[in-house]
């Protein structure tokens, strides 16, 4: 049977070309032609010949009001790994498609092999499709992880049609595709990993998952910038997108949900890499706190929210004499926001750092994106500049505006209860976050403005 021809479609205007060109002949855009499978002659022939009076060939379909549709909670199957289930929203969803990405060697294949082995031991048939390794390499890894007598089926294949046929005959409950960049379809002539191949293979696997109820997990490569390689449309096709974060030289890994149709986004799972694979961390706040015997200048503990989980993270600042052009460097925090906070400190609190080098770091490699970290960052900078440590057991959180006001952070009660549970005794928070009933073990100081917070902290020394 002759191979189907491919056509090149412009991603800007939709124009087609029988061969690849640097510039689209229709709209003159550069590098926008993407290879796609051409329609068969039978499928496109006379497709407008059966149209009715309105010019549309399809038949009208019945519609149902939302109130008449029975809504039920989606059934979930726990994977046996609590931190992974937290990120997924409770477990594996039947017919769900998950895309997981991360740097090479960070632990994607290790975590998924542990998860499918746990599901297999629960009685759910699992299929592990590897396109980057041989079956012997996967077996060697499973033995190294201590997964003795694992019954997970392994298929070393990169052709999409063979994978789909195997899934149809075996009918597994979950399929792992490691990785989507190695797969190719016979319908396209481009090499595996190209934009067209990745999109085509992902579309077929997603269609299979929705029609059969098989859960599919796709492993994706990332670019140098840290984004998933391949077309951006890949993230829109799937139900859940997970990213591995963390330094490969560190023993800790974070798995963050960027998109989740069946759960909360920005939820994180914390893992520790051990000789027996990735193990969930029960108390992740301990990772992000330095173990100082006594308080040190430039250190302030922040209670941040990662999804539904409050975490305690230590913010460290170092203010030093700068040269003609002082440096502003932040790790784990937005650099532009740091510059804004320094300007607010100067204008509304009288703390000048214009001729100083300012370095700010979030301990443990965590990335903090919420503005509730503003107050902790400013207090740590002030502490380093003065050379005076903050009180022992001190925490702070709150957003700071350009007018110097301290704005409330969401779910302040949960943050304070988490801090009290871990032994912190003094908190400076926005006035709107002050609880009506006192929380046992922690003294709360509500503030309205930045200068009020700094004056209050000086009085606590």
From TrEMBL:
UniProt keyword annotation of Cell inner membrane present: no
Keyword DNA damage recorded: yes
Stored Gene3D superfamilies: 3.30.230.10, P-loop containing nucleotide triphosphate hydrolases (3.40.50.300)
PROSITE patterns the record matches: RECA_2 (PS50162)
Amino-acid positions noted as binding ATP in the UniProt annotation, renumbered to this chain: 102-109
Pfam families referenced in this protein's UniProt entry, alphabetically: AAA_25, Zn_ribbon_LapB
Motif stretch (RadA KNRFG motif): 259-263
Sequence segments annotated as region (Lon-protease-like): 357-461
Keywords tagged on the record: ATP-binding, DNA damage, DNA repair, DNA-binding, Hydrolase, Metal-binding, Nucleotide-binding, Stress response, Zinc, Zinc-finger
SMART domains: AAA
The protein's role, per its UniProt record: Plays a role in repairing double-strand DNA breaks, probably involving stabilizing or processing branched DNA or blocked replication forks. DNA-dependent ATPase involved in processing of recombination intermediates, plays a role in repairing DNA breaks. Stimulates the branch migration of RecA-mediated strand transfer reactions, allowing the 3' invading strand to extend heteroduplex DNA faster. Binds ssDNA in the presence of ADP but not other nucleotides, has ATPase activity that is stimulated by ssDNA and various branched DNA structures, but inhibited by SSB. Does not have RecA's homology-searching function.
PANTHER family per record: DNA REPAIR PROTEIN RADA, DNA REPAIR PROTEIN RADA-LIKE PROTEIN
Similarity remark: Belongs to the RecA family. RadA subfamily.
Domain notes per entry: The middle region has homology to RecA with ATPase motifs including the RadA KNRFG motif, while the C-terminus is homologous to Lon protease.
Name of this protein: DNA repair protein RadA
Species annotation: Comamonas squillarum
């Amino acid at each position: 049977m002759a191979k189907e021809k491919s056509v090149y479609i412009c991603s800007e205007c939709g124009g087609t070309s029988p061969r690849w060109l640097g510039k689209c002949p229709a709209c003159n855009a550069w590098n926008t032609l993407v290879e796609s499978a051409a329609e068969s002659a039978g499928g496109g022939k006379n497709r407008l010949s059966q149209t009715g009076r309105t010019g549309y060939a399809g038949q009208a379909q019945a519609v149902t009001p939302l109130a008449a549709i029975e809504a039920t909670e989606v059934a979930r199957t726990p994977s046996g790994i609590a931190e992974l289930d937290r990120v997924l929203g409770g477990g594996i969803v039947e017919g769900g498609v998950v895309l997981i990405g991360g740097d090479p060697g960070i632990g994607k294949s290790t975590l998924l092999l542990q998860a499918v082995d746990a599901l297999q031991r629960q009685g759910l048939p699992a299929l592990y499709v590897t396109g980057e390794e041989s079956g012997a390499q996967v077996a060697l890894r499973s033995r190294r992880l201590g997964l003795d007598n694992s019954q997970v089926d392994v298929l070393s294949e990169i052709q999409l049609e063979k994978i789909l046929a195997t899934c149809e005959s075996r009918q597994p409950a979950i399929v792992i595709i490691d990785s989507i960049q190695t797969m190719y379809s016979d319908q396209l002539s481009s090499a595996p990993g190209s934009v067209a191949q990745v999109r085509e293979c992902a579309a077929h696997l997603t269609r299979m998952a929705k029609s059969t109820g098989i859960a599919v997990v796709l492993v994706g490569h990332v670019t140098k910038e840290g984004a998933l390689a391949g077309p951006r449309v890949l993230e829109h096709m799937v139900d859940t997108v997970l990213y591995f974060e963390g330094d490969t030289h560190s023993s800790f890994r974070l798995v963050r949900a960027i998109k989740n149709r069946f759960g909360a986004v920005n939820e994180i799972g914390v893992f520790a890499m051990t000789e027996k694979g990735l193990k969930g961390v029960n108390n992740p706040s301990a990772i992000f706190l330095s173990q100082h015997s006594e308080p040190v200048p430039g250190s302030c503990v922040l209670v941040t929210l990662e999804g539904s989980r409050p975490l305690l993270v230590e913010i460290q600042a170092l203010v030093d004499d700068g040269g003609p052009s002082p440096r502003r460097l932040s790790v784990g925090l937005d650099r532009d926001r740091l510059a804004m906070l320094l300007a607010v400190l100067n204008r509304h609190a009288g703390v000048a750092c214009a001729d100083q080098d300012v370095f700010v770091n979030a301990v443990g490699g965590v990335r903090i994106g919420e503005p509730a970290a503003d107050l902790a960052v400013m207090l740590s900078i002030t502490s380093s500049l003065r050379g005076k440590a903050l009180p022992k057991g001190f925490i702070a959180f709150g957003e700071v505006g350009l007018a110097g006001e301290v704005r409330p952070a969401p779910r302040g009660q949960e943050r304070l209860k988490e801090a009290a549970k871990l032994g912190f005794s003094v908190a400076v928070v926005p006035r709107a976050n002050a609880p009506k009933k006192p929380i046992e073990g922690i003294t709360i100081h509500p503030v309205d403005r930045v200068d009020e917070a700094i004056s209050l902290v000086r009085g606590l020394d």
